[in-house]
Design a protein that fits this description.
Blueprint (H helix, E strand, L loop, with lengths): L1 H6 L1 H48 L3 H26 L2 H10 L2 H4 L1 H64 L3 H5 L4 H8 L8 H13 L1 H4 L10 H8 L4 E7 L4 H17 L4 E4 L9 H16 L5 H13 L3 H12 L4 E7 L4 H5 L8 H14 L5 E9 H9 L8 E3 L8 E4 L8 E4 L13
Parallel strand pairs: 1-4, 1-5, 2-3, 3-4
Antiparallel strand pairs: 6-7
Length: 443
Amino acid sequence: MDVLVQHHPEYVALAWGAMKFVFVLVQNHEKLVTTLAKALATIGESLARVNLAIVLYPTARMKHAVAQVYACIMRFCIRAHDWYRANKLHHIWESLARPVELRYTDLIENIETALGEVEGLATAAARAEQRDVHMAVLTLAQRMENSEKVLFEVRQLVASTQAIVSSSQFNTNVNIITMRGDDIIPILFPSFHPNQPGDLRYAKLLARQGQKAASSISSPYWQDRKFDVWNSSPSSAAVAVKGDYLSRLTLRHTAIQMIEIIRAKQVPVIWFLKTSNDRITVAEMIKGLVYQALQVCDPSYTERSLGRLHATIQAADNEDAWFEILSSIIADLRQIYIILDLAATGENELHQDDRSFLWLSAFKRLFLKLPERNVQAAIKVLLFAYGSTATHQFGTAIEFADVTINTKHLSRGGVAFHKQTAQSRTKLTPRGKRTMHGIISGR
């Protein structure tokens, strides 16, 4: 080569040119392959960011920019695909005639420009969101400040209102506690008028009119052992006096006497007597007992307890509900007598197809509940009935046999009525035995 350079430089230049041509082809081919590989790797990494940008900020400009990116990538991929499918001679020709700067640089720059636009739009959208968040935080802070001001004003208003109310309000629970039975009865029973002392006088008048007929029919049931057990028992007890139609006036007369004796001893007593031929329901009779119980019990009420009692009375629609109300009222007393003439309801209740209210059963259940409620009240119940009413109420039940006195089984003629002077009251005097005035003793 050195000899040729000295003698034939044109040949050396030709050989050197050929060698340089080969070197340039190899260099261009290497550069093309490297550029294609880097471009494909860059495209693969950028597609993930492009997809995230279009999902987060799907605006019209963002969609257009992403479309430009996809278009540039598709053009680049088409050219790269054509090059990879070509043969070796085509690769040599491409390296010589179309180097990478002429064939792919423009597409790569377009892809980079489109990606830059997408990233710029994403950055601008993120800043806009950040600004929105900042404004929302400022608005929320302003609202909280306003709420604190309003809350402070409300606290001041509440404090001033409490001061005013405290100086002027009154405790209704304390005031209503002074309301007694006579005061609340018009509230609980605005239009109800059951047996009153006037009715007792009327019943007494009827009994005196039939006293002549009754004097020949004497049934000293108060001398019976069952009656004595009932009267002397320190706890609650009930006794039933069963008579017939002929003894009805005697039973009614002695019931009136017993009521007067108990009232004279200032022992609480409530009663219901037959004063007319009109029949009433059991619920009406118990309602009358509740009316009287509120008077004799004379309980104290608060606003809450009075409201509860009023609601219970308004909701009562059957005899069981009324009996429960009566039980709750009389349970507050140490002792109370209940005297009932069941003839006032007898026939009315017998037509209810075995749904009659059994008085002895009801009071028996009440007596069993008193210890469970820790109530020490002594409730003495005296029931009078005759005829079909007596048979229905306690004539067929074996469980009532020990508390039922049948006047037919007592000796007749053992008791007689005697009229005394005008200064003394009429009383039933058993011959040779104690009077009725001595059998009732208050606790």
